[in-house]
# Entry
Amino acid sequence: MTDQEAVMLVVNHIDVYRGGLKALWDISISLSKGEIIALVGANGTGKSTFLETIAGLLAPSTGMIHFEGIQINGEPSHRIVDLGICLVPEDRGIFPGMNVLENLELGAFNRRGRAEKEETLCFVYGLFPILKDRRKQLAKTLSGGEQQMLAIGKGLLSKPKLLMLDEPSLGLAPLIVKNIFEAICQINQTGVSVLLVEQNVRIALKVAKRAYVIENGRIVTHEEAKNLLTDKRVRQAYLGIHSF
# Structure
């Protein structure tokens, strides 16, 4: 197995409770270095809970999570960021009363991020030129698409090895969604692995190598993304898609 194919993240049979209710049942996935994988399914099926568990915001009641051979379940979230995992949450996690540059610089709070802050900032500005143009503008005055770009940029300032994105297309116009996903592919081309949670099934399956389908807190199928995209039975039974 080459370094590019080396397994980076292994989630092994985790159960997770949220607010006293069981949200995830016996979830197992793996992700290799340099890979984009997607977790798709209807709203409320446990996708965000899964990402928050990997990020250390929730703890599994059973099972194990390993990142680059290190067990991370039970570790605090700041330690998980230090190891190279960053979550861009569904609510974007930006600071509305601070300007764009201040938000980006806050992303570089960890040691890895601080060491390469200026280089990463240049990369983010190249990826999203509008952020450079508006670097002194308050985050709350940005459009929804610009805020999503800022959220991703802020995540990149931590220099992640694994970038987890929770619904990056939510509420955005189709052209902006296209731009965001082009940026995700560019980020991946730099060697950053991506774990993508997304309700826009079509675009998620187009950029991902593999995909897991989650239904009622359980993984119901796992396949090469291109196969799920063309499998009529899977699309109808699990994704609610009858045609593109």
Q: What stands out?
A: The two ends are 36 Å apart (CA to CA). The chain is about 40% helix and 25% strand.
